[in-house]
Amino acid sequence: RFSRKFRENSSLAKVLIVFTVSGGGIVAFSDAKPEDRLNVVNPSEADDKDKKKRVVVLGTGWAGTSFLKNLKNPSYDVQVISPRNFFAFTPLLPSVTVGTVEARSIVEPIRNIVRKKNVNVHYWEAECFRIDAENKKVYCRSNLAGDPNQTEEIVVDYDYLVVATGARANTFNIPGVAENCHFLKEIEDAQRIRRTIVDCFERASLPNLSDEERRKILHFVVVGGGPTGVEFAAELHDYVNEDLVKLYPKVKEAVKITLLEATDHILNMFDKRITAFAEEKFQRDGINLKTGAMVVKVTDKEISTKQVKNGGEISTMPYGMVVWSTGIGTRPVIMDFMKQVGQGSRRVLATDEWLRVERSDSIYALGDCATINQRRVMEDIWAIFQKADKDNSGTLTVKEFQEVLADICERYPQVELYLKNKQMSSLVDLLKDPNRDSAKESVEVNLEEFKAALSQVDSQMKNLPATAQVAAQQGSYLADCFNRMEQCEVNPEGPLRFRGEGRHRFRPFRYRHLGQFAPLGGEQTAAQLPGDWVSIGHSTQWLWYSVYASKLVSWRTRALVVTDWTRRFIFGRDSSGI
Ligand code: FAD
User: Fold this and answer.
1) Which of 78, 113, 381, 529 is 20 to 30 A from 282, alpha carbon to alpha carbon?
2) Cα(15)–Cα(57) distance, integer angstroms
3) Separation of 86 CA from ligand 1 center, angstroms?
4) What lines the ligand 1 site, CB under 6 Å?
5) First to last CA, the chain
6) Beta strand pairing call for 160-163 and 53-58
7) Which residue's CA is the nearest one to ligand 1's atom 3?
């Protein structure tokens, strides 16, 4: 039918490919004008379209996949759009760079993940380049012709949009970084690093090279002392010392690994004991650790750093390979969207505690591409108090205070924790005591003092970290909301709304921190578990093996990764770089 229309209608002559997709509402065109655009609906699904709300999910990373895995409500038509047709288990990416684990062992095709679901899920390999919040459409680019220079556009309508596009590596606009450094974000990055390491060793082994040239080629620089940079440096050190030196004995002495960190210490977000252990271990291992060194420029041969303290002295060193791991930045599609929704001046896309993008009720954003707006949270708490203080006297009855506090603590458990930590627990207990019939009792609440206390809570309620843990929990929280959408519409379970009437449909998202690992090489790992419990050493490495094996997305990847670990124990790592 479409091919006939295509031939008959000259205005459609530019349309190259049209999907007649089940689920419909998707259009593909190449350089078609806006008026040529079609909204294609598969006739067999046309009835369903009326019934089913369409949920479009952007991204197949931690957040998107967790949402898809946990979505059970069959009353949605789900369209997944991502340039990557697989989920990648990023915590094992550093292991892929040195061949401890193979790349294919840590990826699972998204079609495998959604295959057995009772929910209608369709996947499109495309990259979203524009979100049109006003008309509820997303504009995507796909490489239908198989030629990267020839892309087609797809327009997809949505009722709900789940934005889970993650983040990109942040170069901080430092000259030469984008052109000359390796990043460690995607599977392809890890494979490229693996090839480059072996390539450096092969080049350094060629005859007619001076010692200086050899040292330059075998100088590996890692920028960023966060968990990823530290883990990569440790993996590289093990790879070189356990496997490569046996194969390239002549160049062994020329190898050098440098880790650059702009602040005073590596692993800043960890307990001081872990930082100290890691720094000492790296020193023992001969890893050249340079703290307080900020990279200012990278050329194809040299990397320049500026000493943050001591007069800002600039020094330059030649290198063979640089791996850049300094944090994350916002993707262009998200920056464009932020401007549309009046968040152009923000650094990150802001959501409320229900993960809804502010000012766009049908759009949710989760994972690394967004953050819950804590400032708004504090404003909300303050507004609740002000509202309760009707006569503006700064005095509330115990009962009034109890109600307000109960509401706030339900929404923001951090506030209760803070008050308890500040030895205000007796006040909290008193105010929350349900047996007190204290409508007439008055308690002096100095609201200014309380506001000052709140601002301290504010500084403690930092943005959630950009981790897989947060992304996965947000994905499953949102899926749970979608699963119970109809129920909660009738019986809302969230806290009272202070702007508007009634209760919120859902409870707000709450993050449960389960701890964090920092693998340090030599079969040693550091772990910081809830309650600031710290464990470092070989036994923690076994904990790391078991936790990561259990977290892998499927039994297939679990089996492959465990096999890779066993193979490495028996035969060592593969050094072909393939
Ligand atoms: P991602 O997982 O990055 O997924 C983003 C998805 O969006 C991808 O599928 C991508 O292809 C897709 N996408 C991108 N652009 C578009 C677009 N324009 N349109 C549509 N789709 C798009 N966290 C931990 O908790 N523990 C760890 O040990 C850990 N180790 C890490 C090691 C490394 C090397 C790295 C890089 C990260 C690590 N992290 C770890 C962090 C963790 O990987 C991220 O926080 C997590 O991936 C964020 O999930 P996400 O779904 O937001 O983004």
Assistant:
1) 529
2) 25
3) 12
4) 58-64, 81-84, 90-91, 93-94, 127-128, 164-166, 184-185, 228, 331, 333, 367-369, 466-469, 471
5) 47
6) parallel
7) 166
- Predicted confidence band of residue 455 (pLDDT cuts 50, 70, 90): low
Say what the pLDDT of residue 32 is.
40
> Which atom of ligand 1 is nearest the CA belonging to 331?
15
ipTM passes above 0.95? yes
Ligand 1 centre from 92 Cα, in Å?
Answer: 12
pTM above 0.90, yes or no: no
Nearest-atom index, ligand 1, CA of 63: 51
Ligand 1, atom 9, lies closest to the CA of 60
Whether residue 377 is predicted with pLDDT greater than 90 in this model: the reply is: no
C-alpha count within 13 angstroms, C-beta hemisphere, residue 357 = 27
What is the per-residue pLDDT for 460?
55
What pLDDT, on a 0 to 100 scale, did the predictor assign at position 43?
Answer: 37
Handedness of CA 359, 365, 367, 368 (dihedral sign): negative
Q: Compute the distance between CA of residue 491 and CA of residue 509 in angstroms, rounded to an integer.
A: 18
> Of 50-59, 418-427, 474-483, 504-513, which has the strongest mean pLDDT?
474-483
DSSP string, 185-244: SSHHHHHHHHHHHHHHHHHHTSSS--HHHHHHHTEEEEE--SHHHHHHHHHHHHHIIIII
Beta pairing partners, 347: none
Collapsing DSSP to helix, strand or coil, 316 comes out as strand
Cα→Cα distances 286→97, 224, 241, Å: 20, 18, 11
Are 197 and 577 in contact, with CB atoms under 8 Å apart? yes
| pLDDT greater than 60 at residue 198 | yes
**Ligand 1 atom nearest 84 alpha carbon:** 11
- Tell me the pLDDT tens digit for each residue of 298-357: 999 999 999 988 778 899 999 999 999 998 999 999 999 999 998 888 888 999 889 999
What is the C-alpha R_g of the chain? 27
The pairs formed by 111-119 with CB atoms below 8 angstroms and a separation of 24 or more are 111/85, 112/554, 112/556, 113/65, 113/68, 113/69, 113/87, 113/553, 113/554, 114/68, 114/80, 117/68, 117/71, 117/72, 118/72, 118/74, 119/71, 119/72, 119/73, 119/74, 119/76, 119/78
CA 368 / ligand 1 centre spacing (Å): 7
Q: Whose CA is nearest to atom 49 of ligand 1?
A: 62
Given the structure tokens 């959604």, which residue do they identify?
A: 114
Cα of 182 vs centre of ligand 1, distance in Å, is 17
Residue nearest to atom 41 of ligand 1 (CA): 467
Ligand 1 centroid–CA 198 distance in Å is 26
> Alpha-carbon distance 389 to 460, whole Å?
26
Instruction: At 144, give phi and psi (nearest 5°).
Output: -65, -35
Q: Are 268 and 131 in contact (CB under 8 A)?
A: no
SS3 at position 246: helix
Give distance in angstroms: CA of 30 to centre of ligand 1. 29
Centroid of ligand 1 to alpha carbon of 62 (angstroms): 6
Pairing of strands 328-329, 168-169: antiparallel
